[in-house]
Amino acid sequence: MGSELIYRGSETQPSSDSYSPKPVKPWASVTRPIHYLLREQRLLFVFIGIAIATLIFTVFPTSPAPYVAPHSRFTTLIPDSITYFPIETQQKFSSAHRLGFGSANPTGKIPLGLKRKGLRIVVTGGAGFVGSHLVDRLIARGDSVIVVDNFFTGRKQNVMHHFGNPNFELIRHDVVEPLLLEVDQIYHLACPASPVHYKFNPTNVVGTLNMLGLAKRVGARFLLTSTSEVYGDPLQHPQKETYWGNVNPIGVRSCYDEGKRTAETLTMDYHRGAGVEVRIARIFNTYGPRMCIDDGRVVSNFVAQALRKEPLTVYGDGKQTRSFQYVSDLVEGLMRLMEGEHIGPFNLGNPGEFTMLELAEVVQETIDPNAKIEFRPNTEDDPHKRKPDISRAKELIGWEPKVSLRKGLPLMVSDFRQRIFGDHKEGSNTNNASSS
To answer: Where are the annotated segments for Disordered (predicted)?
Structure first.
């Protein structure tokens, strides 16, 4: 029986090729979140959460306090902004560079329960006379210090007491060769400062150039220790930072004088051209323990000669004047300058002025009243007068020297006596007698 196809046209339904969903109700985007919050008391939990958060922030405020360096003699305020930089430079340098390398807290606020992170600092020439005293202060306040020194004038004995301290590192390296470190601050002290040493190995600016390059690469703050020798044989007395100096560019001392002047130029060029944070200190005559015994500088010469029962050698007529600051005063000034907001340059020295004959008399009083004075021909380009005007340092970084020559000299004599003769007992007795 054949199949039969039956077509019922009246029973078929019209088909449509398109699908039409329900039309979107007006205000659905507003009413749906409201319905969601009202269901199952969700709105109540939102208010409870807000109340708890308000209570926590009221009881435990998170406002930051200024950093106070432990074991230091002064309070260090770390600024929240670099007001003297242009806008693009301010954006480049965040407070992470001042609160610790790699800090994940760029706003400068320290989270609850966390202590201030110590800085990572490199001190070039850190095994030298001034550098080793600076390292002592930085370690004491809790920073990590890397000393870079080639030991041309520095001595390992100056920093041996830090060996074994996890916050201390020593690298034997000459800064005229490049060096890559991750640090927050750079104190650049590496440079022979006495005539005996810088005439034997003339100063060049390659080390300063390398350290400025390092500061640029890692975003570190850079402090240059310049010198009062940039004023040469000054025609202005006392010397202000605005004085440009009177320097012989081809004299026997010019390798040092002009080297430091060029270093200041490079420092300011890196600041203006590359946005490097810089500080410049112009250091006047400094004395104290750990000073090189036979470096040709007048205080160390007089003290060593008096202890050895030799005549005190005065060059020229002895009327040349110098100003002498104790090393602890200088270190305080360097740290205040580094942590402050001002570039400089700043004169760091003691404005107390002494002639060479007056200095010889003070050494006689302290060591040996019978010590003789011997006059010799004066050296070439020897400045006739040297006295700092420190009004700018007083006003802007709150610094001035505290230790007088008659108070600080016996401390240096005690150190020299011990190093020359190895006499601990006699040195301490002399120190006590002189101080009293």
So the answer is: 1-24
